[in-house]
Give the backbone structure.
Amino acid sequence: MTAPSENEEDQPSVTVYPDGPLILRGGIVVKDVNGVVLSSGQVVALCRCGRSATKPFCDSSHKRGVLDSGQAQNLSSK
C-alpha cells in the first residue's frame, strides 16, 4: 500500500463503516433544508441506522442493534 499523496489527503472523503456511521472528512459543512449550518469542521459522523437522538449526526446508537450494512467502502470526491 502506498501513502496517499498530499493532494489526496486534502480531498473531501466519505468512509462507510460496517454497521456504523458515514464519516465525512475534509472541510465539511452540514446544513438543514433551510440553509442553517448544523455543523462544520474537518470530521463529521452521520447516522445511517436511524436510531440516533441527534440526527442527522451519529450518537453511537447503532451499537444497540444490527445495521448489517455490509463492508466498509471509501468513496472519495473527485
Summary: Helices lie at 6-10. The radius of gyration is 14 Å. The beta strands are 13-16, 22-31, 37-46, 73-76.
